[in-house]
Design a protein that fits this description.
Number of helices: 15
Structural class: alpha/beta
Radius of gyration: 60 Å
Order of helices and strands: HHHEEHHHHEEHEHHEHEHHEEHEEH
Largest sheet: 7 strands, mixed
Strand order of the largest sheet: 3-11-8-4-7-5-6
Distance between the termini: 155 Å
Shape: elongated
């Protein structure tokens, strides 16, 4: 039974295969027939001189295609009509010439992306014309259509760089022929674009010349201003400064036994003090002829000003006003040389300890020695007692002058009392600091560091006639009454000179 069932199934399968073979042969025959008809159509179209329009080709393809055919036959007919339409369509340029890409199927025939859909009759469309790209002119307007390109005369050269590229591009466009089918693919020149060989930054040479001229004018102006500020002999001072630095580096300078450095004092301390003396205090010197030219002398002066700057200003005034530019060797208190920085600077500027031995040694060496007998009592006195001399001590300066047989020159300084007006004294603070006094001025310590700026008072320094001591002999220094009499005489001379100068002074600051 099973064998009979298997045999009947095999017979049915063989019958199906034999039935399918004629169908396949029929479809293959239909395909070959369709291909032959398509080939005959294309051969006939090539031989015909008249070009068939896409509309007629589509109508013929639609008429010859049966209403009910298989999808494969319909695709083959559409492919043949598409090939015929492409051959008959004129060549176009631009985006209108793009044709949808066809792909090859497994059977070897080229079909479009819509091969599975049935063919629909397409609406007749007008043939597309080729597009021409027109290059605009420099002003944006299209150029006028001329039948023939005429050669323009050469344009005049212009100084403006913006018009040169535009003129060159217009002339080049007029000389080049324009094809009716293909637009010229050339870059459009924009105004302001420099050609090759043209400077990218116009006027650079002129700008550099203007900057150079401005720099020369500025340097000349600054040089004149610096020369006016430094004075007429600023070049000489500058050369002296360079020589001073060279000597300090090489060590080519001298220091005496007391530590006095003339080179350091002249080129370092005096220039700073000279600004105060000439510009701030406006010091007026009187009686400079009473100071000897080269011999020794003892200068005795009043002391005032809360801060002892009258001594250094007097030293500079003598150096600047004297024909021989003499240096004043000052005698200072012990406290001055105990300070860390002030003591060293005082030594270098010619100051030494106030002792009879040092004073006599300097006087015998022909130096001009200065002494301020009031000491801290004169510097630290209140403002209400201004220009009133304090006690001169025991007269040790007089005995030193008598032993050295040098004259005594009284000196009166007016204007130093108003530099720091002392209106109070902080005795407790002075005791803690170990100072003789702690001043209170109208601006210090209220304004802090600003209170240390001195007031610009008008200074007058007057040197009196020298008092002779050489006629007394060295032995007169042992007579206390003679020493006291000479001390009182010098003190009275200075006091009377102060009063006379105060009467003639117009104002504290003028």
């Amino acid at each position: 039974m099973a064998d009979s069932t298997r045999a009947s199934g095999a017979k049915k399968t063989a019958a199906k295969k034999t039935a399918a073979k004629p169908a396949t042969r029929k479809s293959t025959a239909k395909k070959s027939t369709a291909k032959k008809s398509t080939a005959k159509k294309t051969t006939a179209k090539k031989a015909t001189p008249k070009k068939a329009t896409p509309k007629k080709a589509n109508q013929k393809a639609a008429a010859r295609t049966p209403a009910k055919v298989s999808s494969v036959a319909a695709a083959a007919d559409r492919a043949g009509g598409e090939r015929a339409r492409r051959r008959t369509t004129p060549l176009l340029t631009g985006p209108s010439a793009e044709v949808p890409t066809t792909t090859s199927s497994k059977g070897g025939s080229r079909t479009s992306s819509t091969s599975s859909r049935p063919a629909k009759p397409k609406k007749p469309s007008a043939p597309r014309q080729p597009r021409l790209t027109v290059v605009p002119g420099p002003d944006g307007a299209p150029p006028a259509a001329t039948p023939t390109a005429r050669r323009r005369p050469p344009a005049r050269r212009s100084t403006s760089t913006a018009s040169r590229p535009a003129a060159r591009s217009t002339a080049a466009a007029s000389r080049r022929p324009v094809s009716p089918a293909v637009a010229p693919a050339q870059p459009v020149a924009t105004p302001g674009t420099p050609d090759s060989g043209q400077a990218l930054v116009p006027g650079l040479a002129e700008l550099l010349s203007v900057l150079l001229s401005a720099g020369q004018l500025t340097s000349r102006t600054l040089g004149q201003a610096a020369g006016a500020a430094a004075g007429e002999d600023w070049e000489r001072r500058f050369a002296e400064t360079l020589q001073f630095l060279q000597r300090r580096v090489k060590g080519d300078y001298a220091v005496d036994d007391f530590g006095f450095d003339r080179d350091f004092t002249t080129h370092t301390v005096f220039p700073v003090l000279r600004l105060l003396k000439d510009k701030w205090f406006r010091v007026e010197v009187r009686g400079i002829e009473n100071i000897p030219a080269d011999s020794g002398a003892l200068l005795v002066s009043n002391h005032s000003g809360t801060v002892a700057i009258d001594s250094v200003i007097t030293q500079l005034a003598i150096h600047d006003a004297h024909p021989q530019q003499r240096f004043l060797r000052m005698l200072g208190a012990d406290l001055v040389f105990q300070l860390p920085v002030v003591g060293d600077v005082a030594r270098k500027t010619g100051a030494t300890l106030a002792s009879n031995a040092d004073a006599e040694r300097l006087l015998r060496g022909g130096e001009l020695v200065g002494v301020w007998p009031e000491g801290f009592k004169g510097v630290g006195k209140p403002f209400r007692e201004r220009y009133k001399l304090q006690r001169f001590g025991r007269g040790g300066f007089v005995s030193a002058a008598i032993r050295s047989e040098v004259p005594i020159i009284p000196c009166s300084v007016v204007g130093a009392e108003e530099v720091y007006p002392m209106i109070g004294n902080m005795k407790t603070v002075a005791r803690l600091l170990g100072a003789p006094y702690a001043p209170i001025t109208p601006f210090f310590p209220l304004l802090g560091p600003l209170g240390l700026i001195p007031l610009p008072s008008k200074w007058i320094i007057e040197f009196g006639e020298p008092v002779d001591t050489a006629s007394l002999g060295p032995a007169a220094a042992e007579d206390p009454m003679l020493v006291f009499e000479l001390t009182d005489q010098v003190r009275e001379t200075i006091q009377q000179t102060l009063y006379s100068v105060l009467v003639t002074r117009r104002s504290v600051f003028f």
